[in-house]
Write a structure and sequence with these properties.
There is one protein chain. Helices cover 17% and strands 44% of the residues. By secondary structure, the chain is α/β, with parallel strands linked by helices. The strands form 2 sheets. It has a 4-stranded mixed beta sheet with strand order 1-4-3-2. A hairpin with a 2-residue loop joins strand 3 (38-45) and strand 4. It is globular and about 55 Å long.
């Protein structure tokens, strides 16, 4: 069986992006590989093996065009309300908490936040299929 191991996003500023993912999701650098033209930074935490791969293309100063195909990354947390408050206190500007119900039952509670390069990230309450 295949196992999903990472999602890659291109970023402009390594320090700013690593700081965001550390503050927002507790992700630390697991590996960092520097090449002539680019840098690969793999971020993870102790809760999961899945990683976020940041790619920094050296010399790039213009923001990336995220296009219309990118949707979002998603993280789940045990206490959505506490995380939302923590994001606000950290100055990460989370959007409001939203609840989705289906057939009279809670399907999902979540909020979105944007990383420094404009990537949308969904933060979900650990519940049902979101674990």
């Amino acid at each position: 069986m295949a196992k999903c191991i990472h999602a890659m996003v291109r970023v402009i500023d390594e320090v700013r992006s690593v700081g965001f993912y550390k503050t927002a999701f507790g992700l630390d650098i697991a590996d960092r590989f520097e090449f002539d033209d680019f840098i690969l930074i793999y971020l993870r935490n102790d809760d999961a093996d899945f990683e976020v791969e940041l790619t920094v293309n050296k010399g790039r100063t213009e923001p990336y065009d995220l296009g219309s195909g990118y949707g979002h990354l998603a993280f789940c947390v045990d206490d959505l309300d506490a995380e939302h408050a923590r994001f606000e206190q950290a100055g990460l500007a989370p959007r409001k908490i939203v609840e989705f119900n289906r057939d009279g039952a809670l399907l999902a509670r979540f909020f979105f936040v944007q990383d420094p390069d404009g990537y949308q990230i969904e933060v979900l309450q650990r519940h049902g299929r979101y674990r």
